[in-house]
């Protein structure tokens, strides 16, 4: 499945990413971690062997000879025969040449350099390309896929990826330089929150990185065991469920956690500078205000939403909702309004000005958007009134919420299963990325949708009216190219067969005509 998405603006990514070279410290770190894992595996194997030994030595089972239960004389003979054949597998090959390296091989001279140049060209990212960062889990293996989207050709492909230590819950793009590039004016990074109580920050312009550039939180397992999931002032003790980077104060990153706390991190020093404990259950979502640099919005499983100034956390305004909070969003076009999506399938809009003495007012409106949880929500950053919701019911819906009178514009299944993430592209007028439980992602050009154009008119259209709606864009894999080749090959064969069949039919028709004329 794909659990989270993040776009990267055009022109931000390095045109030619650098390839990471392992340092001695990283090699030592790998060896240390490998040794620790081997020790754990040996301990588990020893414990298992003791259990197996107890079973095998059970007097009641001795007559069954369980130790040799799967063995047979035929298998031993077959293994011996295979070993004998393998010893002479190359005995009849003569004139086999061997070269110490590729440069000595006359058949490979120049090929290595050409391959490197081709690879470098494939890795190139143009200023007209967007990146789409996806948190993906497949067969219990989690990674971040960094995709490149070429809008001119509607092409989406995986550029590179990196492994994660646990299931990812949140991703957030940021441009503040950390790690090897600390102190640089701008960067291209993604922060990742997982089931681990730490936040990893990876450089998107570096290939083959074995470790993140910065880790926020503690790696001290003893300290985490002592905390036992209880809140700690300096680090998270449970899964990191939400992330929000402050675009106004670029060195600040906010995180929300299953340990019931919200934390404020200083990226320049990699430390927690503030911890907030105004929720009583897992904190699912956090977001900075788009223009008020110090104001935070949070939502939790205690069915509460909180808004507060991070400099004065005691002055918190709270709103009560009907179910666990799935996501929260500030309205980028109205500084006083925010949206809350809940597990019940409802979306509510609130006005912060209606809060009095820390108690929030009634919602401006309540929208029953889906029959199941609203697991994804997005507001268009440039077109007012465009709200998109996604749900476990596998539908994606577009709403017109102008004048706070919500009306559904269109609903469709984008073929990603349960929708877990939806994000608008920051550069294109109405380009939306969605992903979900199927492990697939889709990019939908909403500007070519007739219902969307009918409601929002010229605000969503970059040019003339579209003749037809564009198909959804999905990630192109190598096997897709093979399928395209096979389909093209099959089409050619079919065309040739059709031509041959037509020729045969024409010849037969000619023979019949000649026979008819002869008869006459």
Summarize the structure.
With 520 residues, the protein is an alpha+beta fold.
Main β sheet profile: 5 strands, mixed
Distance between the termini: 75 Å
| Rg measurement, Å | 30 Å
Question: Using DSSP, what is the number of strands?
Answer: 30
Figure out the total of helices: 6
Per the principal axes of the C-alpha atoms, what is the gross shape? globular
Helix content class: 10-25%
Which secondary-structure class do the elements indicate?
alpha+beta
Please provide a written account of the structure.
The protein is an alpha+beta fold. Helices cover 22% and strands 33% of the residues. Strands 1-3-4-5-30 form a 5-stranded mixed beta sheet. It has a 4-stranded antiparallel beta sheet with strand order 6-7-8-10, with no helix packed on it. Strands 11-12-13-14 form a 4-stranded antiparallel beta sheet, with no helix packed on it. The longest helix has 42 residues, at 478-519. Mean pLDDT is 83; it is low at 488-520.
SSE topology sketch:
Blueprint (H helix, E strand, L loop, with lengths): L1 E7 L9 E2 L4 H33 L16 H14 L24 H12 L6 E10 L2 E10 L4 E9 L4 E7 L14 E6 L4 E5 L2 E2 L6 E3 L4 H7 L12 E6 L6 E6 L4 E5 L4 E6 L6 E6 L6 E6 L3 E6 L6 E5 L4 E6 L6 E6 L3 E6 L13 E4 L5 E6 L6 E6 L4 E5 L6 E6 L6 E6 L6 E6 L4 E5 L4 H7 L18 E2 L1 H42 L1
Parallel strand pairs: 2-9, 5-30
Antiparallel strand pairs: 1-3, 3-4, 4-5, 6-7, 7-8, 8-10, 11-12, 12-13, 13-14, 15-16, 16-17, 17-18, 19-20, 20-21, 21-22, 23-24, 24-25, 25-26, 27-28, 28-29
């Amino acid at each position: 499945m794909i659990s989270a998405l993040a776009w990267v603006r055009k022109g931000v990514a390095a045109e030619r990413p650098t390839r990471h070279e392992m340092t001695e410290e990283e090699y030592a770190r790998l060896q240390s971690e490998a040794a620790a894992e081997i020790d754990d595996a040996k301990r588990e194997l020893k414990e298992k062997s003791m259990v197996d030994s107890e079973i095998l030595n059970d007097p009641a089972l001795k007559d069954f000879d369980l130790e040799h239960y799967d063995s047979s004389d035929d298998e031993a003979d077959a293994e011996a025969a295979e070993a004998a054949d393998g010893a002479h597998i190359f005995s009849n090959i003569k004139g086999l040449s061997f070269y110490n390296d590729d440069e000595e091989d006359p058949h490979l001279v120049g090929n290595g350099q050409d391959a490197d140049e081709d690879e470098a060209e494939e890795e190139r990212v143009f200023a007209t390309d967007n990146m789409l960062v996806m948190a993906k889990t497949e067969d219990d293996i989690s990674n971040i896929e960094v995709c490149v989207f070429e809008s001119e050709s509607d092409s989406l492909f995986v550029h590179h990826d990196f492994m994660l230590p646990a299931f990812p819950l949140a991703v957030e793009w940021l441009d503040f330089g950390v790690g090897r590039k600390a102190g640089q004016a701008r960067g291209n990074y993604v922060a990742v929150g997982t089931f681990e109580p730490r936040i990893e920050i990876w450089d998107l312009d570096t290939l083959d990185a074995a470790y993140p550039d910065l880790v926020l939180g503690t790696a001290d397992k003893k300290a985490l065991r002592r905390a036992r999931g209880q809140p700690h002032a300096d680090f998270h003790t449970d899964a990191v469920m939400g992330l929000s980077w402050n675009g106004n104060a670029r060195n600040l990153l906010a995180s929300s956690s299953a340990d019931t706390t919200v934390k404020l991190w200083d990226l320049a020093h990699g430390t927690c500078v503030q911890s907030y404990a105004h929720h009583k259950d897992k904190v699912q979502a956090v977001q900075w205000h788009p223009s008020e640099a110090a104001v935070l919005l949070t939502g939790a499983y205690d069915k509460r939403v909180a808004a507060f100034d991070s400099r004065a956390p005691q002055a918190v305004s709270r709103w009560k909702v009907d179910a666990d909070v799935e996501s929260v969003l500030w309205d980028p076009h109205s500084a006083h309004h925010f949206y809350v999506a809940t597990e019940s399938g409802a979306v509510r809009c609130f006005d912060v000005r209606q809060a009095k003495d820390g108690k929030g007012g009634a919602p401006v409106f309540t929208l029953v958007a889906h029959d199941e949880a609203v697991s994804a929500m997005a507001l268009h950053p440039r077109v007012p009134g465009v709200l998109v919701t996604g749900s476990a019911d596998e539908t994606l819906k577009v709403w017109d919420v102008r004048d706070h009178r919500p009306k559904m514009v269109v609903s469709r299944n984008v073929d990603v299963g349960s929708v877990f993430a939806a994000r608008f592209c920051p550069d294109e007028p109405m380009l939306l990325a969605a992903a979900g439980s199927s492990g697939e992602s889709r990019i939908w050009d909403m500007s070519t949708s007739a219902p969307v154009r009918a409601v929002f008119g010229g605000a969503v259209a970059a040019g003339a009216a579209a003749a037809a709606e564009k198909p959804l864009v999905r990630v192109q894999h190598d096997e897709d190219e093979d399928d395209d080749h096979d389909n093209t090959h099959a089409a050619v064969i079919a065309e040739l067969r059709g031509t041959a069949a037509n020729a045969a039919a024409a010849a037969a028709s000619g023979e019949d005509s000649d026979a008819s004329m002869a008869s006459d």
